[in-house]
Amino acid sequence: MTSRLTNEDDIARMRNAGRLAASVLERIGASVQPGVSTGELNDICHRMIVDELGCIPAPLNYTNAPGQPAFPKSICTSVNHVVCHGIPSERKILKNGDILNIDVTVIADGFHGDTSKMFFVGERSVLAERLVRVTQECLYRGIEVVRAGARLGDIGHAIQSHAEANHFSVVREFCGHGIGRVFHDEPQVVHYGRPGTGIRLEEGMTFTIEPMINAGKRHVKILPDHWTVVTKDHKLSAQWEHTILVTGSGAEVLTRRGDEQIG
Q1: Strand ranges of the sheet holding 169-170, from the earlier edge strand across to the other edge
Q2: Over the stretch 3-62, which tens digit does the pLDDT of each residue have?
């Protein structure tokens, strides 16, 4: 089933879920410092989501494949060469020069808001800065082509073209997804492709765009914990994510943060 909102009440609930998810990322940045563990960041975000916002952290105890263990934490924290789905841990201490993706999904009034942001830990290398910037630009370029009547391939093409023009590669094994009452729904939103291909976008559709861009080759592997995805060549990876509502004239970014001039 393709995730599509058909009435104003549901759209309002999705807007609220997106706003609440974005607020967690707006506030957690002050805690991203050398010497802090990803487990501590998880605990801070969990308290925000549950105690302050009155929401449910969607990743906690989530599983989407037979035999896959439940995800044990409330957010995903992916450091350096971790592409996505990094599991927070008290043993993973952030150090100066790291890059970190924090991925937050909340359930508010039955609807999901899903978003992620890259953070620099202390100083940044030239490569890290460029990778993180280009990956965010890839996300924005994908969003710019969203409107009723466009096709999914238009999104993938916009992202792939910009990444490869900057000599980076696009992860193909993981993608964006429909979202609403269901965490992961149709359509699958891949971050590569040809314009004019794929399903046609319709007003009211809601999905995530979340490009994962690698500094090296695109190939990845999943670690024995069945969740953590890393680059095979151990080179840096970056990701940014927003939840999008398709409108007649373009895209409404439901998880837009206050520091962004989009959607």
Answers
A1: 169-170, 212-214, 237-239
A2: 888 899 999 999 999 999 999 999 999 999 999 999 999 999 999 999 999 999 999 999
Q: How far is CA 247 from CA 21, 140, 201, 202, 252, in A?
A: 21, 16, 9, 8, 7
Q: Which amino acid is at 228?
A: T
Q: Which CATH superfamily is domain 8-253 in?
A: Creatinase/methionine aminopeptidase superfamily (3.90.230.10)
Mean pLDDT score, 179-198:
97
Nearest partner of 101 among 202, 213, 7, 13, judged by Cα: 213
How far is residue 10's CA from residue 8's CA, in Å, rounded to a whole number? 5
pTM of the model: 0.97
Show the tokens assigned to 191: 């971050």
Domain boundaries along the sequence of the chain: 8-253
